[in-house]
Write a structure and sequence with these properties.
With 451 residues, this protein is α/β, with parallel strands linked by helices. It is built from 16 helices and 15 strands. It has 3 domains: 209 residues, Rossmann fold; 81 residues, Four Helix Bundle (Hemerythrin (Met), subunit A) (Up-down Bundle); 48 residues, no CATH class.
């Protein structure tokens, strides 16, 4: 593969560009990870899967030892403090529990482990050092125990979101405070309230703002300038905009990340996901009913920059597709062929890639041996086909009924058939089917199985 063969849409330039790393022997990629205050939801699964695929592509082009993938864990934040208070548990207990769930979710979705997964609380000193830099260079100011970044001192503020400061204020997700010189100024350090986590600093006991956490961790693990910064569209402003401002100003650099990639929004049944609407789907909710490969395929079926609507129909459709593909599963680990791989090099064109997989599957059904190999290697590259068909089937939805209840209903149906009460027999069969149980009659013998 040549370095320029990968093309990605760069949010910063608002166009598709050839990906040329700053150093081909050390490709740096930073992805904003979870704030560990609540179970990760299906919207969080999208960047996990998309940028995991990007990581796999970079490894194939440059080699595993030349790609450094960093994904942080935000374990100190207002949301965490609030949730721990609501649950009346220790903050460290909450963050440890949710981090464990998150890591389990990543495994379930078959995401590769990043090279580094730093926690914010382990990098407080790096944040303090960056804030001191910004104060020394007059890009920040101190007021009443708070340190704020002075947005007026950074002329390019708003370039990533393609908006001028006045537009940003009008639609702002900005923290309101009388202490700020400008509504867009953002907090770098703030005093901790009683019983809140706190660290010693030159400005008194306190804790960092959210934005400075990622800037400090990205610099520590990737350097002052690196290649790729990724996350959801919702992070462009204010989070990523603020990261750029504080990092460039602290480091006297011309750029922070060279390329910015953002995945599109996800809705559930046509609506924005919210607990109040009852359409809040956690990744953990799906584990009992669906294999993680089904979730992965459902995410990758839509191009990462397009909106994605999440619904049961999509899951059921992809479940059936995977089951049919698995009829050609082999344990071979052949490399994906270059012609297929090149489809993904066009800004991760997964819909076109999956369309090609359908075509390859049809050739395999017609007896094409090469197609069978291509099917396996292509699906493995997507992060699918990681287990045998038998293992995959274990994850199919099981009935809520226990074995004794099923056997009892089968006996009732057999008795109804014997008495020629076919209406009752059919009703029992249909009821069982709705609950995930298939009845099969062979001569006088009746068997059942899970769907």
């Amino acid at each position: 593969m040549t370095m320029s063969s990968l093309k990605i849409f760069n949010t910063l330039s608002r166009q598709k560009e050839d990906f040329t790393p700053l150093n081909k022997n050390s490709v740096g990629m930073y992805v904003c990870g979870p704030t560990v205050y609540d179970y990760p939801h299906i919207g969080n699964a999208r960047p996990l899967i998309i940028f995991d695929l990007l990581y796999r592509i970079l490894i194939k082009i440059f080699g595993k030892d030349k790609v450094n993938y960093v994904r942080n864990i935000t374990d100190i934040d207002d949301k965490i403090i609030q949730r721990a208070y609501e649950l009346q548990i220790n903050i460290s207990e909450l963050t440890k529990n949710i981090e464990d769930v998150f890591l389990s979710d990543c495994e379930y979705l078959n995401c590769l482990n990043p090279n580094n997964q730093p926690r914010a609380t382990n990098n407080i000193q790096e944040m303090i050092k960056m804030i001191e830099n910004l104060l020394d260079k007059k890009f920040a100011y101190f007021k009443d125990g708070h340190v704020y970044f002075n947005v007026n001192k950074f002329p390019n503020y708003g370039k990533l979101s393609n908006k001028n400061p006045k537009e940003l204020i009008s639609g702002a997700r900005v923290e309101v405070s009388e202490l700020k010189n400008n509504p867009l100024d953002f907090v770098l350090w703030k005093p901790s309230k009683e019983k809140e986590p706190s660290w010693n600093s030159p400005w008194g006991k306190g804790r960092p703002g959210w934005h400075i956490e990622c800037s400090a961790m990205a610099e520590k693990y990737l350097g002052k300038e690196f290649d790729l910064h990724c996350g959801g569209l919702d992070l462009i402003f204010p989070h990523h905009e603020n990261e750029i401002a504080q990092s460039i100003c602290s480091n006297n650099s011309s750029l922070f990340a060279k390329y910015w990639m953002h995945n599109g929004y996800l809705t559930v049944n046509g609506k924005k996901m919210s607990k109040s609407d009852g359409n809040f789907v956690t990744i953990n909710n799906l584990k009992n009913n669906f294999n993680g490969q089904i979730i992965r395929l459902s995410i990758l079926g839509t191009h990462y920059r397009q909106p994605l609507d999440w619904n049961l129909k999509v899951l059921e459709t992809n479940k059936k597709i995977l089951e049919s593909w698995y009829s050609f599963y082999t344990p071979d680990t052949e490399e994906i062929n270059n012609e297929l791989f090149s489809i993904l090099l066009d800004d991760l064109n997964t819909p076109k890639f999956i369309t090609n997989i359908h075509s390859i599957y049809n050739k395999a059904k017609a007896g094409d041996v090469a197609a069978k190999k291509d099917l396996n290697s292509a699906l493995r590259f997507l992060g699918l086909f990681g287990e045998s068909q038998q293992q995959f089937n274990i994850f199919k939805k099981k009935s809520d009924l226990d074995v004794s209840e099923i056997e009892n209903l089968v006996q009732q149906r057999n008795l109804a058939r014997k008495n020629k009460d076919f209406k009752k027999a059919d009703k029992i069969r249909l009821d069982l089917e709705e609950k995930g149980i298939i009845i099969e009659d062979l001569n006088d013998n009746t068997t059942w199985k899970h769907k």
